[in-house]
Structure formats: structure tokens, C-alpha cells
Design goal:
With about 325 residues, the protein is an alpha/beta fold. The protein folds into two domains: about 1-105 and about 295-330, NAD(P)-binding Rossmann-like Domain (Rossmann fold, 3-Layer(aba) Sandwich), CATH 3.40.50.720; about 105-285, 3-Layer(aba) Sandwich (Rossmann fold). Helices cover about 35% and strands about 15% of the residues. It has twelve helices and twelve strands. The chain has helices spanning about 15-25, 40-50, 65-70, 90-95, 105-120, 125-135, 160-170, 185-190, 200-205, 225, 245-255, 295-315, and strands at about 1-5, 30-35, 55, 75-80, 95-100, 150-155, 175-180, 195, 205-210, 235-240, 260-265, 285. The strands form two sheets. The chain has a seven-stranded parallel sheet, with helices on both faces.
């Protein structure tokens, strides 16, 4: 049995020994495990995977060309909840299972949303820059702060994380509205959230939290057309996937003051060049390095679940997997 754990350098910035030990304890000490830091060389990457049974990754793009080159691979296990980087159709055609982590960081991500929401609305970046960089100790250097109690938060994507965000926001006295065509009124009512059409959520929200899964259909969902409908000039918070926002339009919306600012845990690129990036060095934009999921607990859970998906798949225990994206390959 050969298992490859591979990702970008920044995404492998944690102790992988837990996963290695977990796999060998379960599958046997003779299990070959290779940790490979992806450097952009697809030929080298394919050579590493050539005789592998399983690939564990978080954010690598596994496209049609790569998948077609892997005749031995049985499963791709993703150390994340999203799977937009994988060509699922080609994986299915090649009879390769694709599994994701269904649940491991809901609390961390929803806490991150609230951290960004609070920091933006209280303009903490502006004030800390004043104090640290300018030696200014004066609350009057900015304005337009609102009281969150009684404000409205619009959530796009009322899944587990969206509902966790709603619960936390409501504890601050914030009214929560949402758009999610896949959630029933019954589920929304249970968490005291009003489901509304897209345009109503855009126009009524003081803050917007993006918690949608990225699909081929919603790439660039938040574009200039939608920014222009945000009549209350909200803060935009994205902890989902960067490609849900058209970044050029976001920069334009910030420059034209169509929105107050943004809290971004993700950008379109997972390895962005931050030199002269148009979203960097803005008082009203907070960027974190896709860290919303991160805690000591979630890192261990992320590894464990990804490993369990591999273990259960190769042992034929499909019903014990957390989520197999393409179960049709089992038929």
C-alpha cells in the first residue's frame, strides 16, 4: 500500500506525523507513505503518484490530464470540505473515488467569521495602524461605525457553517437573513433565520457572510452587478472560496465605496503574490491566509477524517466514509 500526502508548501505547514502514524497504525507498519511538497512540476508529481493507491491533499488542482495519467490510484481524499480543485467527472470515469471532510472545523470557521465581522465594524485595523505605525491615539480619525445590536447580517449559504454563524451573530442581537436555494424554510425557521431572494439579502444587509460551496455555476457570483445592489454598503466576509468573488469587481467596488470593506480568508489564488496586490494595505480590508479552519483540534480532526476516508475506502467500508463525492463508481 502506497499513500502520497501532497500539497502546496503553505498548505503543508503543520505536523503531518499524526497522519503518518494514524495510517500506519491502521493499515500496517509496511504502508509506504510519501509526503511531497508540490512545486508546480506536474510530471514529477505524476511520477510520484504513478504506483500510489491513495492521494491525500487539501488544495492541489487535480485536473483531467493528471487523473488520466494515474492508472493505479484508487482514491483522492481531500483534507477540506470543498472539492472544486478536483475534476470529479474524470475521476469517476477513471474509477477513482473522491472523498471530503464533511465536518471538522465548523466552530473555528464560524468564529473566524465573527472575528472578521467585529474587527471590520469596530475598524480595529485602522486603529491599530494608527497606534503602531503612526503613533496616533485618537478615536476620531475614522467614522461611520455602527452598533451591531439591531443590525442585519445576510448569509449566503445556510449549511452547517452558515447556521453556526447565524447562532453566534444572533447572540450579539443581530438579525440574520439568508439566501440558500437548497435549504428548506423549516430548517431556516429552526435557527430563526429568514430566507429571502438574492436581491433582498443584498439590499438589506449591513454585513454579508459568504458560506457557499464553490461550483462551476457560481464562480464569480459576487460581481459588480451584485455590489451595486448592496444599498447599505455592507462589509463582505468570505471564508469559503476566493473564486466566489470576482476580485477585479471587488477592487472596483471598494474604490467606488459601494461597500465599506472586506474580510477575506481566501483569495482566488491559494498561493497569491501579495506584492502590489490591489487588496493588500487597505485600512478597510482584512486578509487572513486561509486560516479560518485552523486550531490544534481541527488540524488533528482534519488529518484523522482524511485518513479514515482512505482506510475505509481501500477496505471496502464505504458506509463508514464521511462523504464520498462520486458514489456512482461503486455500482
Amino acid at each position: 500500500m502506497k499513500i502520497v500526502i501532497s500539497d502546496y508548501k503553505s498548505s503543508l505547514n503543520f505536523d503531518i506525523n499524526y497522519a503518518i502514524s494514524y495510517l500506519r497504525d491502521t493499515l500496517g507498519t509496511n504502508t509506504e507513505i510519501i509526503v511531497y511538497e508540490y512545486n508546480g512540476n506536474n510530471k514529477e508529481f505524476i511520477d510520484i503518484l504513478n504506483d500510489a493507491d491513495a492521494l491525500i491533499t487539501g488544495y492541489l488542482e487535480i485536473d483531467k490530464e493528471i487523473i488520466q495519467s494515474l492508472n493505479h490510484l484508487k482514491i483522492i481524499s481531500i483534507m477540506a470540505t470543498g472539492f472544486n480543485f478536483i475534476d470529479i467527472q474524470q475521476a469517476s470515469r477513471s474509477h477513482i473515488g473522491v472523498a471530503v471532510n464533511q465536518e471538522y472545523c465548523t466552530q473555528e470557521v464560524s468564529e473566524h467569521v465573527m472575528s472578521l465581522l467585529l474587527a471590520l465594524n469596530r475598524k480595529l485595523k485602522h486603529y491599530t495602524n494608527d497606534v503602531d505605525a503612526k503613533g496616533i491615539f485618537d478615536y476620531g480619525t475614522t467614522n461611520n461605525l455602527i452598533r451591531l445590536d439591531g443590525s442585519t447580517l445576510g448569509i449566503f449559504g445556510l449549511g452547517k457553517i452558515g447556521r453556526s454563524v447565524a447562532k453566534k451573530a444572533q447572540s450579539f442581537g443581530i438579525k440574520v437573513i439568508a439566501y440558500d436555494p437548497f435549504i428548506s424554510e423549516e430548517v431556516a425557521n429552526e435557527c430563526n433565520v429568514e430566507l429571502l431572494p438574492i436581491d433582498d439579502v443584498l439590499s438589506e444587509s449591513d454585513n454579508i457572510s459568504i458560506n457557499m460551496l464553490l461550483t462551476n455555476e457560481n464562480v464569480g457570483f459576487f460581481n459588480m452587478e451584485k455590489f451595486k445592489k448592496m444599498s447599505k454598503r455592507p462589509y463582505i466576509i468570505n471564508v469559503s472560496r476566493g473564486a466566489l468573488i470576482n476580485e477585479d469587481d471587488l477592487v472596483d467596488a471598494l474604490d467606488k465605496e459601494l461597500i465599506k470593506g472586506a474580510g477575506l480568508d481566501v483569495l482566488v489564488s491559494e498561493s497569491p503574490n501579495l506584492d502590489n496586490h490591489p487588496l493588500v494595505n487597505r485600512d478597510n480590508v482584512i486578509i487572513t491566509p486561509h486560516s479560518a479552519f485552523y486550531s490544534e483540534t481541527s488540524i488533528l480532526e482534519c488529518q484523522r477524517i482524511a485518513c479514515d476516508n482512505v482506510i475505509n475506502y481501500v477496505n471496502g467500508n464505504y458506509d463508514k466514509m464521511f462523504r464520498l463525492i462520486n458514489p456512482e463508481i461503486l455500482k
